[in-house]
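Subgroup meeting minutes
Present: P.N., E.W., G.H.
Scribe: E.W.

1. P.N. recapped why we're keeping a running log of single-chain structure predictions: easier to compare across weeks, and new members can see raw inputs and outputs side by side.
2. G.H. added today's entry (440 aa).
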Amino acid sequence: MLRTAIITLLSFVTLTAVAIDINTAPIDSFISHIERNNQGIGTVMIAHKDTIIYNRDFGKQAVAPDNGNYRIGSITKLFTATIIHNLCSENKLSLNTTLHNFFPQIPASDLITIQQLLSHTSGLADYTIKQDTLPLWLTTPATQQEIMNEIVRQDTIFTPGTALRYSNTAYYLLGSIIEQIYHKTYSEVVDSLIIKPLHLNNTQSGIADPSAAATPYKLNTANRWQAVEDFYFPNVTAVGDIISSPTDLITFIQALFNGNLVDNNTLQLMIPQDDQPFGCGMMIMPFYEHTFYGHAGDTYGTNTAIMYNQQDSITIAICINGCSTSRNDLLIGICSAIYDSYYEFPDFSDLQQYTAPVDELKQYAGIFTSDIINLPMHIEFDPSDNNLSLRLQGQPAIWLQAKAPGIFVNTMTGVGIAFKDKDHLTFRQFQALIRLTRQQ
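Output recorded in log:
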């Protein structure tokens, strides 16, 4: 299985090519198992050296047709890191340049370097979660000033350079630095430096139109795929806004490792070193002794990954716009098939989502309040699709997946609800636990 232990590829190690014969039949059998059990929607593509050896859509028959392109989430950060390294190679920037040169208003900006921003060691947190509790605030347009205000409010969570925490904020600021230096939009820079030179015909940045990529889905209360409200993507420029295809992602990461975008010294900086999970742009993605490098990406509705194994010349791209089984579990099955490792297909018979009876759902509809906080919770039932949703004041409604009688979750927001009876519920989000009583 995919390990949490890190297998570090040191820069002075000489790689020896190993002949590998990949049988795609076990891969196909595994993906068919996922599809039969309604566990996901998306595309898997695998290349060996320069040849695509496997390419399959799965689960698509359950939803409307799409154009084959996906929101790739934080794989965008790999594009951003590539451009930052290009600025360094042109001596327009250095890894030791401090954030103070661009954003002096940010706390500790005189201590935060470009290298720390790239490697998630800056101490900056995550502006996409406003006031630490509102993960959906960027589903509608936000001004740059509003975003900067939130970044400043969050402050740093540790002294720069002393720890590691994944930071969307760091890459948002890197994108803004790119725009300041080039005097162009991030989208224009990506287009001129990466998309056009590599002929990535299905890749684009800065597109707000939700129809430009595959619609994201999650299973709803009735155990059916329902479209998800995703980011307003200009809010996450340079962080997670890029649209691409599995083919383009494979072309992009192979270009990185083949020296077509950065030189070898820069590549070694991008790759994680010394048992770290992140380098200055890439993350390690190991499968037993087989080491892949690349990046994963998540939006509110899509889960993606692009990963490259230098020793075996294997590239895996997976783009999921409907996810019940996790991306990590899918990659375990795929890698097991590639490397002919012993693997038992997951038994989904005990994991199938509970489908709540309509009468059970109807009884939960109402307004619930608590003496602890003045924040009424509206539980709403939609008879058109037997869907139960939760709406808080000032936030969009979120639908609830049924897990057991009276138990509902929304994985995007970390919300869990347990009804003691139709008039009493316990609400959980992150570390908060609140008990509420029906008012209406």
